[in-house]
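User: Show me a protein chain along with its predicted structure.
Assistant: Here is one chain, sequence first, then structure tokens.
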Amino acid sequence: SGNPFVVLGAVARRYHDWNMASLAIGAAALLALLVLRRFPLLPGAFIVLVAGVMLSFGIDLPAHGVKLVGAIDMIPSWPGLPDLSWREWTRLAEVAAPLFLIIYAESWGSMRSLALRHGDRLDANRELLALGAANLLSGLVRGMPVGAGFSASSACEAGGARTRLAGFVAALAMILLVANAGPYIARLPQPVLAAVVVVALLHALDPTPLLRLWRIDRDQYVAFAAALGVMIFGVVDGMLLAVALSIIAILQRMATPKIVKLGRLGNGHDFIEATDAGVDIDPRIEILRPTEPLFFANADLVFADIVARVRANRAAEAVILSLEETPSLDSTTLDGLIECDAQLTALGRRLFLARVKQSVEDTLRTAGADDLARRAAQNFSVSDAWKAANAALATPRA
């Protein structure tokens, strides 16, 4: 038991206990599968599985320490709920919660990656509803948890599946095998079965997705920590760690927003970042836009930065604040905005708001900041605010 690093270490230390017959069979099956992958029209996995069963009939593999799959007991039962005590139901719920997270994450990850690879469209609600219905039905007949497992999905794709009929055909094949090939399945060597699973998942070792995150400089640390977390702490704890790190990363990014200075593009109505060529900057009007929504964690920093910029720009007589990224105001942001307006007024500058959502305007009116709300209502765009600021200046620019 333990994480993969512990298991690999224990396996390496106990090399003298390795079963060479199992190792040879597994290695031969692995090599055969890799060679057969070069011939897409051949059912490589099926050929190797049949070869493994034939080898088992020809040689007494258990006598050489090679494990076989063994007989699978098929005991049909009528749908119904199990007769469990309250303590057992409580324990079941404790196990079901993390199992749900695992099935949800693995299934959606498998669906999404395969859909992107083949250009298919996904409806998340429909897919998850199907998973829920399948698990309810499986539970009623004492079945196993149902999910779009990564290994099974990859094996299905590797076998050439292209449509939903693949699942139906696989179900028919499973029924036929269980009904007619039970003794043959029981003779399947476990190393051969392991080799089939390994080859089906080989493409998952492709580091391209992680390398892409490093190249675009987005979420690479979260992804790397999530991978390590799953390997060290297990799937559930690793997923929870990844979620926590993602939330921390989002809060960190939102708490330190960049404030972009805007300028007028030519003589038109468009205002873009002042770093671009062909942008006209009026030194009398400071046009600013936070790149993240304003909320309690970043509001004070943003408003303090705005006041500092205005103090540094002695030529500025008006300030336009574009709030297009902010859908609503919490109490901290509301108080900060009102205080910022008061500070700018004390400095002899006038604040104009642009791209204000209706919910923000309503909050300003409810808080009694009617003058700010009126200025917000008058300026639907940055261009409107720029015209209003020009009109308010003693010597408006032509």
